[in-house]
Amino acid sequence: MAARAEKSLQSKEPKNVATNEQEFSKFKYYLKRARQYFTSASRIKQLILKIAMYVFLIGLAFVFVYPFLFMIITSLKSNADLGNYAVKWIPTRLQFENYSIALEFMKYGQYFKNTMIVTVLATLGHVVACSFIGYGFARFNFPFKKLLFGCVMLAFIVPIQTLIVPMYLTYAKFGWRNTYLPLIVPTFFGFGLRGGLFIFLFRQFYLTLPRDLENAARIDGCGFLQTYLRIVFPLGQSTMVVATVLSVVWHFNDDYEPSMYIDKAQMGFLPPRIGYIVGLANSPPEVLYETMEMLGLDDDTLNDAVIMASAALICAPVILFFAFAQRLFMEGIERSGITGE
Amino acid sequence: MEKQIKRKKKHLTLRQKDQLKGLFFVAPFIIGIALFFAYPIGLSIRLAFGKVENIVGFQVAFVGIENFKRAFLVDTNFIPLFLQTVGNTLLKFPLTVVFSLIIAIMLNRKIVCRGLFRVIFFIPFLLGAGVVMNQLRALGVDREVLSIMDGKIIPYNILNYFGGDIVTAVQKVFGIIVQVLWDSGVQILLFLSGLQSISPALYEAAKIDGATEWEIFWKITIPMISPMMLLNIIYTLVNTFVDYDNQMLGYIDTWGFGNAEFGYGAALGWIYFAFVGLLMAIVFGVMKGYMHTNEVEEVKKRGRKSRKVFTIERTKKRSY
Questions:
Q1: Which of the four pLDDT bands, split at 50, 70 and 90, describes residue B58?
Q2: Which of A119, A152, A189 to mutate to test the interface with B (most CBs of B within 10 A)?
């Protein structure tokens, strides 16, 4: 049967006179090939491996996505659903008003603007400065290199809690209290929130970068600064994306340092606002009642659903940003054409 | 004047030029040290060895190692808390590195919905870096993810058969795994970027030479991401030490800021930091020999004689 099928394919009859029978045998031939393809041992092994990998991935993904799902679903529950233990994953009614209440309570727009100013500028500082400094550490030998690199590690290891008093005094001396400068300016010098890590990150990347490209640029008559700006800096694209993502997320979510340097309420940032709402929800009934009365709301409007809605609103910009950035992240390397030889 | 400078420049050797270039690149950092780092570090050290006498002018009197003595001999909370933190870190840190490497390798393959998976695996990091996750933890989310107590994954009958102790132990392990997974977002990201900088040509060459996946993993992937591995190990160590749920830092903060005993707080911080620094020095020392870099000098320095350096050339020679 199979032999006939093969023969029919190999026969040198012109194709335009293909009869019904021939078509049929062709189909059988393909069927056979398909069966061979799927039943060969290595294929089955691969298939099983692939299925196992996906099961593992999806299982892991569940663990990872759980807090997010929990947050979103809780944020859409109504008061009755929150009290009802039978309602776990599917609310009886989607209450989108929770979000508008949360927006109003947090004064979202104003605090979002504050947070964005600091996040964008500080991230810019980190990426520009740490790339520059990291290149110096990776490529050149100079006196006190080890000592300086020790300082980088020191800046990274020493927890800010240890240094917060002297830091505060320093910035107070500069007259930077109640401004965003203590959060922005140090990043342009490779300090700031985990600045040492970023220098280290870029250094590790430049260490793996082949020197050939730089040598080629030098032969073509580039000075060292031009080499950096035109060759090295653009090549670091993938690392830059990583640094940007980390810096944005950390600056966006940081609440320790800002709470130390800034005590004007209207200059505050977004994440601590959830603490404000939680505090209000847990405050004594008469205070809560008074506040709600002022806003013209029922005193049971502030519940876990509203708290979760505000949490979701706080995370939303970062998650959107990451969803966008991971696409760049994928493209990064294909474009840059680095060979690791 | 110009001529003079030019003539001077001509006298510089290649090495001196290299040094100047290096200093030029590092200059911002040096300025940064002078502006933001030297004074706080210096003051913090002075505080650790002293006592604040007058809060207004911030006058510090030198008292020697009294603060350190107090931490080890007088304070009954410090040492147990310290040991607990260290144990916690040593347990979590290898798990984090291994898990994140596995996940990063899977995410780097050509899988369906890669972008979606990537976003999913970073969600705990995006939430977790701040107050939002604390809020979720307060509601007990981290405990109920992989909960076997409520009999949903494994029925009650089987649980009863095993007995309470085992179930509690398994539950505890699951709790640690969940926490480790949630904390490994940054590590996944760093590994992923390391994996992406490996040229596909290397893999292709290895395949043509008949290497199996396992061999490729050990002889190409691991050496090529070794710089990222070092970064990751260091980051993980530091991060578990400065974690949000780390009681040690809270304790330091209470003394240093809350109780306004600045000297004692600083001393505690420095003891803690000295330990982290020591661990890191060990990691650096161990990893240095195994790191693959393109530093020509370094390879030349030790590549020929010591066998530790993992370079592509070496692994190739070995496989023939």
A1: low
A2: A189
Whether the predicted pLDDT of A47 surpasses 60: yes
Other C-beta atoms lying within 10 Å of the C-beta of residue A337: 9
SS3 B249: helix
**Three-class DSSP category at A215:** helix
Best mutation target among B9, B36, B182 (most A Cβ atoms within 10 Å) is: B36
Q: Which residues of A touch B35 (CB under 8 A)?
A: 186, 189
pLDDT, tens only, A246-276? 899 888 888 778 888 888 877 888 887 887 7
What class is the B49-288 domain? Answer: mainly alpha
Q: How far is A65 from chain B (nearest CA, A)?
A: 6
Closest approach of chain B CAs to the CA of A30, in angstroms?
27
* Higher pLDDT, residue A215 or A300: A215
User: How many angstroms separate the first and last alpha carbons of chain B?
Assistant: 62
> Could you tell me which residues are beta bridge partners of residue B62?
B50
Chain A residues touching residue B114 (CB < 8 angstroms): 330
Instruction: Report the amino acid identity of residue B134.
Output: N
H or E element, residue B260: none
pTM: 0.79
Spatial separation of the C-alpha atoms in residues B119 and B98, rounded to whole Å: 20
Ordered by start, the domain boundaries in chain B are 49-288
DSSP 8-class letter at A230: I
Instruction: Tell me the per-residue pLDDT of B214-229, one tens digit each, with 9 for 90 and over.
Output: 888 888 888 888 888 8
Q: 10 Å Cβ neighbour count for B66?
A: 16
Say yes or no for a CB contact (<8 Å) between A241 and B193.
yes
Which residue of B14, B31, B37, B276 to mutate against A (max A Cβ within 10 Å)?
B37
Distance from C-alpha of B190 to C-alpha of A281, rounded to nearest angstrom: 39
Alpha-helix residue ranges (DSSP H) falling in B109-163: 114-128, 131-138, 141-144, 156-162
Cβ of B182 within 8 Å of Cβ of A67? The answer is yes
Q: Which residue in B230, B192, B193, B199 sits closest to B312, CA to CA? A: B199
B266-277, pLDDT tens digit by residue?
Answer: 788 888 888 888
> What interface predicted TM-score (ipTM) does this complex get?
0.76
Sign of CA dihedral A140, A145, A150, A152: negative
Q: Check B129 against A315: CB less than 8 A apart.
A: no
Enter the tokens of residue A304: 């876990």
Distance from CA of A129 to the nearest CA of B (A): 7
Chain A positions in Cβ-Cβ contact with residue B252 (cut-off 8 Å):
159, 161-162
Categorize the per-residue pLDDT at A332 as very low, low, confident or very high, splitting at 50, 70 and 90.
very low
- In total, the C-beta contacts within 8 angstroms joining chain A to chain B are 286
- Sorted by where each begins, the domain ranges of chain A are 104-336
Number of H helices and number of E strands within chain A? 18, 0
Alpha helices (runs of H) in A107-159, residue ranges in sequence order: 108-139, 145-157
Q: Which residue has the higher pLDDT, B63 or A330?
A: B63
- What would the two tokens of residue A38 be? 């799927």
Average pLDDT over residues B136-146: 68
Contact between B44 and A132 using a beta-carbon 8 Å cutoff: no
As a whole number, the mean pLDDT across chain A is 80
CATH number of A104-336: 1.10.3720.10
